[in-house]
Design a protein that fits this description.
The protein is an alpha/beta fold. The chain contains eight helices and seven strands, in the order E-H-E-H-H-H-E-H-E-H-H-E-H-E-E. Helix 1 (18-29) packs across helix 8 (159-169), helix 2 crosses helix 4 and helix 4 packs parallel to helix 5 (90-98). The radius of gyration is 16 Å and the shape is globular.
Length: 182
């Protein structure tokens, strides 16, 4: 990889839209993207929820670090969407830094994330009730802000809009009507 912007890690709270923004960014930049949770589920042969229920959060976090390292060792994936809690593990942040990745926090309000969590068909292991999730949201913000870049997921912006902003600001690619400017 030529520079840090060649490798981007998206972080943020569950339901913020990391996977969707990663897919759009992958399309815009014509680069491979990978979703850490999807890799874990495929490799382990079960959902994250089931994995946490059967083996516990600590085992899941250990597997998360193992698969993150595997992803970072393979330079083909230049856009990586983390699970909501992956950034909370200091070892993961150090690993990402050691590979000189650019980190992006997709920042949003709790209500935005909560709405998406409730609309999603995907079950999430850390969701018990709104109060518990709000506490988790507040606890995690203090570490999300350590990312290199912050992009605000505003209600009037789609995930595609945010992906375009990232392409323009991080990758210095000018956009013209949804296409890269020649």
């Amino acid at each position: 990889m030529k520079n840090a912007a060649d490798r981007v890690i998206l972080t943020g709270f569950m339901g913020v839209g990391k996977s969707t923004v990663a897919r759009h960014l992958s399309y815009i930049l014509q680069r491979e993207q990978i979703d850490l949770d999807a890799v874990i589920e495929e490799s382990e042969g079960c959902s994250i929820v089931r994995l946490v229920e059967q083996k516990g959060v600590e085992v899941f976090r250990t597997l998360e670090t193992k698969y993150l390292k595997m992803i970072l060792e393979d330079e083909r994936a230049s856009i990586v969407a983390l699970g909501g809690g992956a950034w909370m593990t200091e070892e993961n942040r150090e690993l990402i830094r050691s590979y000189k990745c650019t980190t992006i926090w997709l920042e949003s309000t709790f209500e935005h994330c909560w709405r998406n969590i409730n609309l999603s068909k995907k079950k999430r292991p850390m969701v018990k009730n709104k109060r518990q999730v709000r506490t988790l949201f507040k606890d995690r913000e203090r570490l999300y802000c350590l990312a290199d870049w912050h992009f605000l997921m505003k209600p009037e912006l789609t995930s595609l809009d945010v992906a375009k902003q990232i392409a323009e600001e991080v990758f210095s690619i000018e956009m013209l009507n949804g296409r890269k400017r020649p």
